[in-house]
Write a structure and sequence with these properties.
Number of domains: 1
Order of helices and strands: HH
Radius of gyration: 23 Å
Oligomer: single chain
Number of helices: 2
Structural class: mainly alpha
Largest sheet: none
Low-confidence stretches: none
Helix content: over 70%
């Protein structure tokens, strides 16, 4: 179960990095990161109609990021509760056996 949690966390971090990259390559009112690939402020990085495609892709990635945040927070709190409830029971057993 721990491997699955950390694998999901790794995928979530990859999603965050991809979201940052997609946001940075979009056209901006100033030059932005697209100008570093050789285009001027009037050109798009991947063609003429990519602004709409990148906006939709960014919206999908942002939605997946928010859903991932919520799921990972619920999963983390559930893991924390399962560990915290099992520890006092073990301590209680050892104290009653010593008496």
């Amino acid at each position: 179960m721990t491997f699955l949690f950390f694998f999901t966390l790794f995928l979530f971090l990859g999603l965050a990095a991809l979201l940052c990259f997609v946001i940075l390559i979009q056209e901006s009112k100033s030059l932005g990161l697209g100008a570093s690939f050789g285009g001027d402020s009037g050109d798009s990085l991947f063609g003429t109609s990519t602004a709409d495609v990148l906006k939709k892709f960014t919206a999908y990635l942002a939605t997946a990021f928010m859903i991932g945040c919520i799921l990972l927070s619920i999963w983390t709190s559930a893991l924390g509760k399962s560990h915290s409830t099992s520890v006092p029971a073990q301590i209680e057993e050892t104290t009653t056996n010593e008496s």
